[in-house]
Specification:
The protein is α/β, with parallel strands linked by helices. It folds into 2 domains: 154 residues, HUPs (Rossmann fold); 151 residues, Riboflavin kinase-like (Elongation Factor Tu (Ef-tu), domain 3), CATH 2.40.30. Helix content is 30%, strand content 24%. The strands form 3 sheets. It has a 6-stranded parallel sheet, sandwiched between helices. A hairpin with a 2-residue loop joins strand 7 and strand 8. Helix 7 packs antiparallel against helix 8. The longest helix has 19 residues.
């Protein structure tokens, strides 16, 4: 995949694509359907996505808590897995937000990208004050000789699949429901950092990761699978939260005990997939009670994961 952060001055090979439009946070099954429809609209053209960084919500509401399902790198990796060869990741700033909807179509999509076919969901809005609708996109693109496919939302028994619905399920402690909509387990991917090393002293060494820009799921203990830098996918148990027994901080982090792993992972990037919520975070009377509970959590996670084909889990970045 080639990633471009400007729509101006693109080389010839970065123009003339079918372009799917949207934020693509999470890159879920509905997004995959949108990408298939974009490709079907003009099968001989390169497959491209136009999206934004930062997410427009983060630009307009900078004081909101982190909400992303994927960071930029994770989104790009997931799109590449779905066959996208060109990613236009355009900076979303005040100038971009003020651009009229018609200018977005004529200047960026037509002149800048040389798009040959466009695809979006039914609620895609763009331009200043979100003044551009799919009706405007269709009429103006048609006048410019660009094809358009408006793709209905993919639905399951719970309704339309959406990034916001996936966020709610994660915050409510249902990672398996989120995985069903994503088409893969939701994961936290990041560099393993040093912590207080308490886990090692009580017999449960952990790999500690920050959530960064990602949404905070329900705090508590999860059965997980960890993808290591060498590609191994191993079972484990993880605590996501503020560690109230030891030190109740304001920032949550993920602490993962990977079964059977003794090597040093500090400074390496791993991906931890949340598979099932075991219990809510709680404060214990002391380290002995904490150790006993972690032992019980680990046993429950081992039992849950024993029958799973972890090597079949799609990995990556969530």
């Amino acid at each position: 995949m080639k990633i471009y952060t400007d729509w101006r001055g693109l080389p010839p090979e970065a123009r003339g694509a079918t372009v799917a439009l949207g934020n693509f946070d999470g890159v879920h099954r509905g997004h995959a359907m949108l990408l298939r429809a974009a490709h079907a609209g003009l099968p001989d053209a390169p497959r491209a996505v136009l999206t934004f960084s930062p997410h427009p919500r983060a630009f307009f509401r900078p004081d909101d808590p982190p909400f992303r399902l994927t960071d930029d790198a994770g989104r790009a990796a997931a799109l590449a897995d779905l066959g996208v060869s060109i990613l236009y990741q355009l900076p979303f700033d005040a100038d971009f937000a003020a651009r009229p909807a018609e200018a977005f179509i004529s200047e960026i999509l037509a002149e800048g990208l040389g798009a040959r076919h466009l695809a979006s969901g039914p609620d895609f809005a763009f331009g200043r004050r979100r003044g551009g609708s799919t009706a405007l996109l269709t009429s103006r693109a048609d006048a410019l000789g660009i094809g358009v496919t408006i793709v209905p939302k993919l639905e399951d028994e719970g309704g339309p699949i959406s990034s916001s619905r996936i966020r709610r399920d994660l915050q409510d402690g249902y990672p398996e429901r989120a995985a069903a909509m994503l088409g893969r387990p939701w994961a936290i991917t990041g560099v393993v950092a040093h912590g207080a090393h308490l886990g090692r002293t009580i017999g449960f060494p952990t790999a500690n990761q920050s959530l960064g820009v990602l949404i905070e799921p329900a705090r508590g203990v999860y059965a997980v699978a960890a993808r290591l830098p060498d590609g191994r996918i191993l079972p484990g148990v993880a605590n996501l939260g503020r560690r109230p027994t030891v030190t109740d901080t304001l920032e949550s982090r993920l602490e993962t005990h990977i079964f059977g792993v003794a090597e040093d992972l500090y400074g390496q990037t791993i991906s931890v997939m949340l598979l099932e919520f075991l219990r809510a975070e709680q404060k214990f009377a002391g380290l002995d009670a904490l150790r006993a509970q972690i032992d019980a959590d680990a046993g429950q996670a081992r039992a849950l994961l024993a029958g799973m084909r972890l090597d079949h889990l799609a990995g990556g970045s969530a």
